[in-house]
């Protein structure tokens, strides 16, 4: 390690994953994630349980990340942490830890917007992995459990949300529809798996007619619920007998909705540099749709490795590196925000 190397520790605690990562310049040295199983039995994240679990996890997770990275604490240049958006109690744990650490080691703190971090995950370099990074300007489809947005990324700092959901997020639609089928939380990965053996044209659902580049998924959720209710009246085993077809049809509808608006934005803005980020970007059909559109419309696509799709601190450390280069630090009285946009 060179004296001039910039070592950033990233902390992520916005929802139900406690994560810490260490970056040397723009190269990732470690990325440790402790997921919280405690929420499974409730079918969704319970905020109070999440913050308690973060408190238990944060020190061992940071300790492991630093050990795995093989850096000395005295070489750490700054600590970057997710300030928001997210669950306030969860964010408080990461923010408070960052403050304590920064004070103890006398190093600067860097606040990070969780949504921007998902976008900047595309710039993480892993040792011995060659990959193309997006060039500016590019469009990023950010799809997670809490957000569905189309972001015009003009630089590392300048991002404009040009479209977003007016109600539920795409991940929420996956999770809520999974729940009514009796699938465990989070339902997105399970629907993805079951859809592989189903017929995507078995059932049709109405698609929203929303202005501009905005999304809506609450109507789809309701029409899915009504379809199950009506069929169950005739056949109580309807869900069990049609699970794969239901999953495949629902998934195809969600992906069509996402891709239609993204294509519209790409055409209107004449941008063919297109990225995807967030938990739902792990979806196999969404990834296949990106590959198909790349061929059909000449898009240059950027799909993150699976490890950087869901919440992780590597993307926080990466964002922290860009801010460190501009000496953009935050004061000690910084407070977390539950809601902020990109
Ligand atoms: O970004 P993320 O880890 O967390 C936040 O929203 O903060 O995203 C989680 C979301 C969940 O809704 C989950 O069901 C969804 O990502 N997800 C998927 C897949 N993997 C995760 N949705 C569809 N297909 C997947 N393979």
3D structure, described in words:
The chain is built from nine helices and ten strands. The two termini are 34 Å apart. The strands form two sheets. The chain has a five-stranded mixed β-sheet with strand order 3-2-1-4-5, sandwiched between helices. Strands 8-7-6-9-10 form a five-stranded mixed β-sheet, with helices on both faces. Helix 3 packs across helix 9 and helix 4 packs antiparallel against helix 7. The chain folds into two domains: 137 residues, ATPase, nucleotide binding domain (Nucleotidyltransferase, domain 5), CATH 3.30.420; 167 residues, ATPase, nucleotide binding domain (Nucleotidyltransferase, domain 5). Helix content is 42%, strand content 18%. The chain has 342 residues and is of the alpha/beta class. The model has no long low-confidence stretch (mean pLDDT 95). Bound molecules: 5'-O-[(R)-(carboxyoxy)(hydroxy)phosphoryl]adenosine. The site of 5'-O-[(R)-(carboxyoxy)(hydroxy)phosphoryl]adenosine has 19 residues, from helix 4 and helix 5.
The outline comes out as globular
- Provide the β-strand percentage band: 15-25%
Q: What ligands are attached or bound here?
A: 5'-O-[(R)-(carboxyoxy)(hydroxy)phosphoryl]adenosine
The CA-CA distance between the termini, in Å, is 34 Å
Q: Which residues sit in consecutive blocks of at least 5 with pLDDT less than 50?
A: none
Question: Could you give the order of strands across the largest sheet?
Answer: 3-2-1-4-5
């Amino acid at each position: 390690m060179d004296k001039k190397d910039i070592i950033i520790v990233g902390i992520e605690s916005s929802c139900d994953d406690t994560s810490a990562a260490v970056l040397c310049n723009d190269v990732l040295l470690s990325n440790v994630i402790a997921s919280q199983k405690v929420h499974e039995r409730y079918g969704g994240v319970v905020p109070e349980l999440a913050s308690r679990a973060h408190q238990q996890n944060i020190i061992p997770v940071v300790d492991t990340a630093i050990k795995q990275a093989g850096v000395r604490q005295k070489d750490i240049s700054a600590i970057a942490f997710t300030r928001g958006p997210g669950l306030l109690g969860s964010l408080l744990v990461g923010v408070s830890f960052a403050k304590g650490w920064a004070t103890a080691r006398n190093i600067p703190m860097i606040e990070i917007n969780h949504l921007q971090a998902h976008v900047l995950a595309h710039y993480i370099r892993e040792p011995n992995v060659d990959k193309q990074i997006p060039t500016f300007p590019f469009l990023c489809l950010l799809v997670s459990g809490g957000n569905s947005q189309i972001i015009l990324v003009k630089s590392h700092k300048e991002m404009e949300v040009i479209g977003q959901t007016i109600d539920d997020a795409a991940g929420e639609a996956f999770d809520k529809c999974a729940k009514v089928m009796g699938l465990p939380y989070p339902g997105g990965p399970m629907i993805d798996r079951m859809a592989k053996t189903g017929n995507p044209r078995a059932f049709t659902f109405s698609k929203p007619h929303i202005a501009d580049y905005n999304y809506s998924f609450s109507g789809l959720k309701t029409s899915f619920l009504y379809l199950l209710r009506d069929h169950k009246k005739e056949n109580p085993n309807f869900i069990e007998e049609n699970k794969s077809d239901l999953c495949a049809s629902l998934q195809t509808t969600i992906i069509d909705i996402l891709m239609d608006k993204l294509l519209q934005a790409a055409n209107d803005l004449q941008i063919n540099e297109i990225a995807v980020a967030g938990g739902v970007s792990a979806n196999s059909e969404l990834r296949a749709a990106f590959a198909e559109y790349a061929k059909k419309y000449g898009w240059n696509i950027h799909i993150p490795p699976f490890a950087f799709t869901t919440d992780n601190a590597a993307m926080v450390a990466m964002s922290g590196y860009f801010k460190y280069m501009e000496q953009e630090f935050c004061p000690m009285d910084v407070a977390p925000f539950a809601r902020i946009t990109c």
